[in-house]
Structure formats: C-alpha cells, structure tokens
Protein 1
Amino acid sequence: MPSLGRLHLVTDTRPGRDPLAVVSAALAVARAELVVQVRVEDSATDREAYDLTRRVLGQCAVYGATCLVNDRLHVALAVAAAGGHVGADDLPVAAARRVLGPAAVLGATAREPVTAAEAVAAGASYLGVGPCHVTTTKDGLPEPIGPAGVRAVAAAVDVPVIAIGGVTAATVPALVAAGAYGVAVVGALSAAADPARATAELLGALGC
Ligand SMILES: Cc1ncc(COP(=O)(O)OP(=O)(O)O)c(N)n1
Ligand SMILES: Cc1nc(C(=O)O)sc1CCOP(=O)(O)O
Ligand SMILES: [Mg+2]
C-alpha cells in the first residue's frame, strides 16, 4: 500500500469553482505529499466523474501524488486510481474493500471511536474524521467534534486519521496535537485567493 500523503485536497465542483486549476496549483507546491480526492456533486453523471478523475489522475502522476475517488468506486477502478473514500451513505467498508482489492487505499468516514475501530476492522486504511469545525461546504453534518473528538478517534485506531471540516492552516496545529496524521480540505484551497500559497501554509502547519 502506498504511503499516504498528509495534505488531502477534496475537489470542489460547485458552480463557479475551477477544480483542475486548484489541483494544479496545490500539486506544484505539495507534490507527493498531496492526496487529491475527486469528489463531485451528487447530480454529476458518472461520465463527468470519470472525465474529471482521468484529468486529475494525469496531473497527480506528474508529481507522484495519490489520487482517490469519493463514493464512486467503479470510477476509481475504471481509471486505476489508488483507491477511494466511503462514508455512511456509500458501500460498507468491507464491501468497498472487496471492490477495490487488498492493495488499494481505502478511506472511511468515522466520527467516534467505536465506528472508527469497526471501519478499520472492516478494511479501512485511513479514516476521515470530522467535521472538526463548522463548515459551509457540506450540508447536513452533525455538530463539530473539535480536536477532542479527533483525539478520541485517534486513540482508538492504528491507521492514519485525516481531520476534515472547516480546517484551515490556523486550526491544523491543534488537530495534529490531537493525533491527526493529516488534514483534508475543500474551501481552504478552493476558495483561496492564492491556492499555491495556501497549500504552502497548510504544509507548514502540518510540519511538512
Ligand atoms: C477525508 C474525508 N473524510 C470524510 C469525507 C466525507 O465522506 P462522506 O461521509 O461519504 O461524505 P461525502 O464526501 O461523500 O459527501 C470525505 N469525503 N473525505
Ligand atoms: C465533504 C466533507 N465531509 C465532511 C465530514 O465531516 O464528513 S466535512 C466536508 C467538507 C469539508 O470542506 P471544508 O474543508 O471546506 O470545510
Ligand atoms: Mg460519501
């Protein structure tokens, strides 16, 4: 299994965003430390997801960076991405592992220690843990768990914990101190005036 980068960029395909430009800027700075998770709107077609993922995978290959696919594991397989990420509304972790195979990177969303341990036992190779802080990027999330919630999950598992939800360079140190191996962001890069600079700030906060 490839070693996991510590800065995860989750693509923002909402109207008015330019995910490929943001990926390009982040890759130029973070290189192999970047994991790009291709996440499209639920309304996007599989063809749209496939086309975007192929382009992102091509960008990542230049830098030896990892490309994962959110939810749509058939797209991950179709483009030979490194793996995928699943949550409560997606395939169960064990089924996702069967689909992707033993060597793939498989992330699972977990918000508390018991489900985190279950996800790891079912085959997750990392956990996405959050929302750590308030975010406007995704609707319907539970209350933020904060660094204390991250600490509880990190203490319960032996796989990398990736903190997500409202993460900024300013909030990274407390999350790392709580046991996060890395962070996943949408807005901190997608909405940045200068995504390359924002990438450097996030890497610096991670101690990379
Ligand atoms: C790193 C990471 N953590 C959590 C999530 C959320 O996944 P999920 O709960 O399946 O929600 P959607 O992203 O599918 O809306 C994630 N994508 N990445
Ligand atoms: C897609 C997603 N999942 C979350 C979870 O907690 O499961 S938070 C989130 C959105 C993260 O975006 P931003 O970095 O802009 O806050
Ligand atoms: Mg999902």
Protein 2
Amino acid sequence: MKPCELENCEEKAVIKRGKDGRAVCKKCFIELFEQDVHDTIVKEKLFTRGDKVAIGASGGKDSTVLAYVVKTLNDKYDYGLNIFLLSIDEGIKGYRDDSLEAVEKNRIEYGLPLKIVSYEELYGWTMDKVVENIGKKNNCTYCGVFRRKALDRGAELIGANKLVTGHNADDMAETVLMNILRGDVARLGRCTNAITGDENELPRVKPLKFCFEKDIVFYARLQNLEYFYTECVYAPNSYRNFARNYIKQLERLQPRAILDLVHSGETVAIRKEASTQIQTNCTRCGYMSSQPICKACLLLEGLNTGNYQIGNSSKKKPREPTETNSVTGENPAPEKSTSGCGGQCACEAKGLSGLSI
Ligand SMILES: Nc1ncnc2c1ncn2[C@@H]1O[C@H](COP(=O)(O)OP(=O)(O)OP(=O)(O)O)[C@@H](O)[C@H]1O
C-alpha cells in the first residue's frame, strides 16, 4: 500500500478519491469529504442560523450520507440548524417499505425526528395502485410529480423553511447533459443551482452538489452507515440511464468530466425570456404551479376518472375542460422538473422529470 498523499500524513492510503484521484487514508478521506460539503454550504450560503430544515430521506446512499454529514457539520461548526428527516412513502411494496426501515434506523441512530408522509394519505393512491391501473409505462411521471408536491407538503407539516436533498455531482452532470440533448434551455440555466425554488416556494438546497457518487459510497462504507440499495421495481430503462452510462464512460477516461459538465451548466448564460416561468397557485389545491391547475391535480383527476390522458398528453393541443375543471382548456406545460423518478423513465423524454426535486 502506498502512503497517504496528503501532506504531513504518515498513514497508508486505503482509497483513491473519485473527485481528484488522490490516494488517501481513511481519516483524510473523511476529513476531505466533510470539508468539501462544508465549503459548499458556506460558499453557496445554503443555511442561516435558526433554519428549520427537512432532509429528504429516502433510505438510499445519497440521503443517508446527506443526513449524517449535515448533522455532523451542524454539530462541528455550530450552524444552528434544527434538523428533521422527511420521508415520502410512495406505496411501493418491496421497495419503499424496505428503504423506510433504513430511514427508521437512521432516525434512532442519529437522534433526528422523522416525519413520514404517504401518497395514500395525500392523494388516496399508492404507486402500487397507480401501476395496477395505468401499467408501468409513464408511471414515473406520476411518482415524480406527486413526490415533489409531497416533499413540500411534508416540509410544511414540519414547519421547515428549507428542504435539503441528496443530489450529487453525477446527478447534476447527467441533468446538464440531458438538458443539452433535449435543448431545454430554461432548465439548463437552473439545473446546477445549489439552491432552487422561486419566490413563494420552499427553497431546496443541495449540499452534495460537488460530491462524486463514488465518494459518497466510500464515505458511507467508511462510516458504516446503513442504507438501502435496490432500484425501484417500477423503473424501466430510461433516458437518464443512458446519460448515466455515458458519463460513467467519460469518467473512466477523464474523472474531471463530471465537474466540467456541472461547470458548463453553471456558466451557461440564459436569456431572461427563456428562463422565466410565471408562477401562480393551483386553483384546486393552492400548490405553486405554472398553470391554473397543477400537474399533480391533473394527474389525480385522470386517475380518479379513469381518463389517463389527463395531465399526460405530450401534444400541445387544447385540452377539453372536464366537469370538475373550469380552467382555460389549455394543455398544461409540464411543471418544473421533479426528479422524483430519479429520472428513471420515459417521463424524462417528455421533460417532466430530471433535475431538481
Ligand atoms: N421517497 C423519498 N422521500 C424523501 N426524500 C426523497 C425520496 N426520494 C427522493 N428523495 C430525495 O431526493 C434526492 C434525489 O432523489 P433520487 O430519486 O435521485 O435518489 P438517489 O439519487 O437514488 O438518492 P438516494 O440515494 O438518497 O435515494 C434524494 O437524495 C432525497 O434527498
């Protein structure tokens, strides 16, 4: 084993960092990783003393590491945060029920309060029921749209003023690439922001923005963090998966490719007309929306009436108002991106999902 590459360290190297390729010992790896997250928090001004933050906890590696690191740094640097875990139970047997067990263990181990909000209580539908009705095609669209709103609702119930998610550098690079491939200029302009959310919206912050997925997995292993690892049972091959595989190949050739892509997204300048979306409130549920009725309410209407085209139509043609819907009759443009599906399905291709949850 080679010695740790950090100055003044005499330990043996045990890991090669994904981010910069340096071979380091366990202690230095952990310190560098935490320092990176702390730097992002400070430079991007993610938190203010007294913030009540809801950490989106799915039980997966990213959010498990996120919760652990934010808590550790809050204690170490005295950020003055009041931290809660927030889990959304989509109602997927053999997937979310298992991952919620991991969150429950984290709750006990980290001593953080946990709030679980389910699709069933919010919408009267579980994803298992949705798939039973509509099949697997497009189901990620429902899941993503419902999750975005559920996270907001959950944060509201907790009284949180910020929502914190585990999006990492690999996620961001994939998103930049997909937005370029789709020519989605508006999303390209905001997809790498460490803080997203418009006026009147709960800010969503991403402290792991510059952390490589590889390093997140190493960190979890070195700290013996328990997390759940299984793909969603309803996630088919997706556009995002292709982007992910492509980036993994690039990373093998040139690890900096991930940061370069994130940097490209950050530096791209977008004309104001292309990047702005007028926000209003859904006339049914009051949730913020770029259309008179939010995407979640439209999808629910489709589920409840058995007309699964509602909220799903990809063609921009005028939509017939329904009995319960006295809106403009316009076919709604997709809500702002919601990577609820983790970008796992065809909703990506329609621009319904992808980046910031
Ligand atoms: N069911 C959920 N409940 C709470 N938060 C969630 C949930 N699903 C996703 N999130 C939040 O959104 C982030 C990105 O979600 P995504 O689906 O891309 O998962 P991921 O990259 O596999 O992350 P993780 O490893 O944390 O599951 C997660 O890190 C987490 O903070």
